[in-house]
Structures
1.
Amino acid sequence: MSEKLLESKQTVIKGELQVPGDKSISHRSIIFGSLAQGKTVVTNFLDGEDCMRTIAAFQAMGVSIEKHGQTVVIEGNGVENLQEPIEPINLGNSGTTARLLLGVLAGLPHHFTLFGDESLTNRPMDRVVIPLRQMGAMIDGRENGKYLPLAMRGGNLSSIAFETPVKSAQVKSGVLLAGLLAEGETTVTEKTTTRDHTENMLQAFGGKIDTNNGKISITGKQQLQGTEIHVPGDISSAAFFLVASTIVSGSELTIKDVGLNPTRTGIIDVLKQMDVDITVVEERTIGGEPVGSITVRSSTPKGIIIDGEIIPRIIDEIPIIALLATQANGKTIIRDAEELRYKESDRIASVVNTLQALGADIEATKDGMIIHGNRTLSGGKVDSYGDHRIGMMIAIASLITEQAVTLVNPACISISYPSFFEHLKKVSR
Ligand code: S3P
């Protein structure tokens, strides 16, 4: 396993940064571009490993997808022309590819086999398999289809009215995509709002979808038209640098052109509640998604309670928020976040174990964690658990540790942020 030595206390964080394109939006641009008729051009596409899995899956179904740097050109031929892949589809580490693709494949009259890496193989798929079976897809797999590998035969779907038992945009999106390929009107009801990029992007491709009080309705068999998509910067990637410039004293950083979709901006709300010096400027709309620039100056945060409705809006940012909380005045409590247990690692366990190993005062609870602030972090050898967001949290922690940090398995960071270390170097003075 490779290791990376991270020297401690070398820097302040200064200047301007443009983070790579949003992971969720990049996945969806490939999916809708492949379902649509005609050419789709995607700019500022995230070329992380996860999004490349989505590209490979649709290429295996005969879609022409060409990538030149961060620009992707998709020649869509419509749903009817998606072909049966010859080989099993490798989903790698990507939960989004898995859950969203399952929804699409459920609507196609072909046979598919799907597998992933060790992490993905242990993440629950039944949350989407169960509603897709109700719609008529035939799906089987390990432990009765709870886990990958899965085999399935899709086609001839009927619509359903589905209430999501889990707070998951992936599940919502999987069912909505199947609904797009089914007969009749499918509705998904969610008790807590999750990211709505699927709904937004469907409309960008000329589709119709209605949202009313947590009830999302989609009529099947709509014809989508190829379009141009500009992917905004990923706020989940920006979060690592927002926290870095908060905790490293003397820092001031502006991150330009970050996606500010309200279903994703919980990190900004949390930082404001913690009294972090943060401002958002140049707000505007590009391609249906709000974007803006965020400036953070170093400051001492205060501990807060984080729970309820905000959790899906910060679900990927909790590891880096936990690091921030170790530096806050007072105690931070994170609750209602049991979903963290089903991410690329069990993020309650991996965050708590890693920060404890670095000298933090943090304990795990059933659905979150309790973090006591004002701790000096030591250093040492810690593992990313093969989880990109844990790896980046460790790298940011090393900016304030007393001793150097050795990060075991840094390579996973390229899942969502291949240029992370390059960017860290760029803003380090
Ligand atoms: C995603 C939704 C979230 C998030 C993941 C991307 C998406 O997962 O953690 O990184 O693109 O829909 P859940 O919706 O399962 O919580």
2.
Amino acid sequence: MKRILTIQDISCVGKCSLTVALPIISAFGVEAAVLPTAVLSNHTAFKSFTFRDLTDDIPGIAEEWKKEGITFDAIYTGYLGSIRQIDLVSDIFRDFGTAENLIIVDPAMADNGKLYKGFDQAFADKMATLCGKADIIVPNLTEAAFMLNEPYIAGGYSEDYIKETLKKLTGLGAKTAVLTGVTFEKSKLGAYGYDSVKNEFFSYFREYLPVAFHGTGDVFASALCGAAALGRNQKESTEVAVDFTVESIIKTMNNPAHNWYGVDFEAAFPFLMKKMGLV
Ligand code: PXL
């Protein structure tokens, strides 16, 4: 069985980060190993939250894995809480990265033109250096703008603008960049990628849904990792991730009792497993 190490916080309630990554990776029939970076009562879009930083635990946990000779087919990082944590995650890439395994970085730190609570430009600059060490990065347009120190453009941009942005993102050092939340026409939304090794662009669009839910970036990244770990190529993995995210949003819209803080990705598992040929 393939094994993914995912490094991000555990927000006890909130349907994001580890409470999303763990079940989704498992649904692919892939083992999910976790390195929790912090424990929060709930994610930071709630009015208030507790935050227990686990940074000091990271080196010791990694040492134990080294003693055991544990290896990973992919390492996937999401929300990270501090600049020091990014340095420690870089050490993990150095120590557990190989020529064969995939390093996937979701620079989860911003959306809709704004950084999440607690982050500043220095953090975004540091996240850009972590992205430089990845095989695949999956920023949204806001995260891309902060990492490139450019203004955020919400819409009305051209395909050339997206292609240039993708080239600048891989210029940070990542082999492939996949931008999420890309839209050229009102009725369609999707992801646009660039593989700098093959010098190839790829994209996949679905119908635009007039809703916005928290945690969809984490759902997208987790599904892309699962598909990539099972050997799907970058375009195929992107398609699986877009389709699963759209299906999760549709399930949420169809549930009148859905909560405000995350999507009902659990209800989309039958769809995912069929799509992946797992059932
Ligand atoms: O969904 C990204 C995310 C992850 N973890 C925490 C967050 C957020 C977004 O707000 O607050 C703690």
